[in-house]
Amino acid sequence: MNVRQVFETVNLFSDKFAACRDFYHSALGLTLVFDDNVSAVFEFGGIMVNILALSEADELVSPQIARGNTAGVSTLFTLLVDDCDLYCQMLAKRGVTLLNGPTDRPWGRRTAAFADPSGHVWEVAQKLAA
Fold it and tell me: Which CATH superfamily does the domain covering 8-60 fall into?
């Protein structure tokens, strides 16, 4: 039996909900498609990104326990862009501080990284010419 699978939504649990909602809207320029007191959903290249207040997350992962980013980075989201340097300049104009980069990597990408207010780390990657 074949069941269709589509990657639809990334849920990011945030202990700084309002700051993260503003970050994804203002700094990344994403389109807000739903917003209430505990959740903000953005359209991001055909995928939904749901910023969810950490206080509301346990019911989604029960019996596991939702936690904030207190134990270091465990996930890295990558955005493929045409021009890493230009994208980083746009981020800087919007007040985003890079964690590292832009740097040419041995695996053929030019990358830079930044974090949202809750510590979720994003990588910007550009394919380098072979």
Answer: 2,3-Dihydroxybiphenyl 1,2-Dioxygenase, domain 1 (3.10.180.10)
Q: What angle do CA 80, 86, 124 make, to 5 degrees?
A: 30
Separation of alpha carbons 100 and 114, rounded Å? 7
Tens digit of each residue's pLDDT (9 = 90 or more) over 87-128: 999 999 999 999 999 999 999 999 999 999 998 999 999 999
pLDDT digits (tens, 9 = 90+) for 37-82: 999 999 999 999 999 999 998 888 888 878 766 667 778 899 999 9
Q: What is the rounded distance in angstroms from the CA atom of residue 44 to the CA atom of residue 39?
A: 16
Q: Where are the alpha helices (DSSP H) in 1-130?
A: 17-22, 58-61, 84-93
- pTM score: 0.86
Query: 74-130: what fold?
Result: 2,3-Dihydroxybiphenyl 1,2-Dioxygenase; domain 1 (3.10.180)
Instruction: List the beta bridge partners of residue 19.
Output: none
Structural Rg of the chain based on CA atoms? 16
